[in-house]
Amino acid sequence: LMWTKLALATLLGAACVTINVYFPAAAAEKAADQFIDGVWQKGATPPSEPKPADKTSALAPPAEPFAITFARTVLESVVPAAQAADANIDVNSPAIRAIQASMAERHSQLSRYYDSGSIGLTADGMVEVRDQNTVPLPERVLLRKLVAEDNQDRGLLYQEVAKANGHPEWEPNIRSAFARRWIARAQTGWYYKEGGSWVQK
Length: 201
What we know:
By secondary structure, this protein is of the alpha+beta class. It contains seven helices and four strands.
């Protein structure tokens, strides 16, 4: 049939196209939320409701023509990496879990400085001292030390997530995705930088 030949030609033609493994932004943001909630010890996001099975028809679908089945098999063998690229971003490697534990422990000390506006989140996924005058003089050295340590962990985090997912070149994209989600999941009243200026959430 003509439509079978057309579909076969389309699928085989697609197999010849150079596949660019694009950055899965949505999956990265979902992974960032998972990591951030662990650091800030927020409740886990409830799982989505499973979709009910489709009961509209008890009839089996018509058999697929052999030519289409063969073409699909060829195509999937050629482009598996591109199909898998947007499936998941792993944030559960031992190195990433160690960074998460380190940041979670430090957050117990940093949280009050977020609350007071002494520190805030930056657009590049880091933390910055916003107003040290809100901190008693004896605590300022400690605050700067905590911020420096947190930023060191953050820098390592973005590298490790990219590396753990087999794409070290994704580090800038991972950093951007996390930066957006740190700010999005920050508590009301915390500060973040937007366009170089501090904004209170």
